[in-house]
Amino acid sequence: MPLSRRHTAAFRVLLGLALVVASWAALSPNPIPLPEGAQMDKWAHLATYVVLAMLVDFSWPDRGFDPPKWAILLGYGIAIELAQSQIPNRMLSPADVLANGAGISLYAFVLLRTLRASGLR
Predict the structure, then answer these.
(1) Sequence-ordered list of residues with C-beta below 8 angstroms from that of 44, at least 6 positions apart, any chain
(2) What pTM was estimated for this model as a whole?
(3) What is the CB neighbour count within 10 angstroms for residue 54?
(4) Residue 23 in contact with residue 80, Cβ under 8 Å?
(5) C-alpha distances in angstroms, 66 versus 39, 115, 120?
(6) Residue 110 to residues 6, 94, 99: CA-CA distances in angstroms?
(7) Distances 59 to 7, 11, 118 between C-alpha atoms, Å
(8) What stretches of the chain show up as alpha helix (H) in DSSP?
(9) What phi and psi, each to the nearest 5 degrees, are found at residue 3?
(10) What are the pLDDT tens digits along the chain (121 aa)?
(11) CB atoms near residue 18 (< 10 Å)
């Protein structure tokens, strides 16, 4: 199902808002408390990057989910981690970058295929 210009514009607005919220959450000196549980921080990273990947993909649907889209999202994640290393109460975490990449991959290899099979993308 092709997306109209209005839909892609809406997804771009949602992407912008998601990036603002994700950046604020990642760069705030006081991390957002997460529910108790094993590796909840990594699950939060994975979920965030699944959503960001979908929003990037739907914002520019004519290109498909190609390597430049992956690279931009991973670059954003790495930049956030580098910035966190300069903020009190925060630290650079290679495991977070790995979780970000896992979220992008989950979208690319599972969710996107499911959306295509159902005719939603």
Answers:
(1) 34
(2) 0.90
(3) 21
(4) yes
(5) 29, 16, 18
(6) 26, 24, 16
(7) 8, 5, 19
(8) 5-27, 40-59, 67-84, 94-106, 112-117
(9) -90, 140
(10) 567 889 999 999 999 999 999 999 999 988 888 888 778 999 999 999 999 999 999 999 988 899 999 999 999 999 999 999 999 888 999 999 999 999 999 999 998 888 878 877 7
(11) 17
| Location of structure tokens 């739907």 | 58
Taking the C-alpha atoms of residue 7 and residue 5, their distance in angstroms, rounded to an integer, is 5
3-state secondary structure of 42: helix
Tell me if 18 sits within 8 A of 52, measured CB to CB. Answer: yes
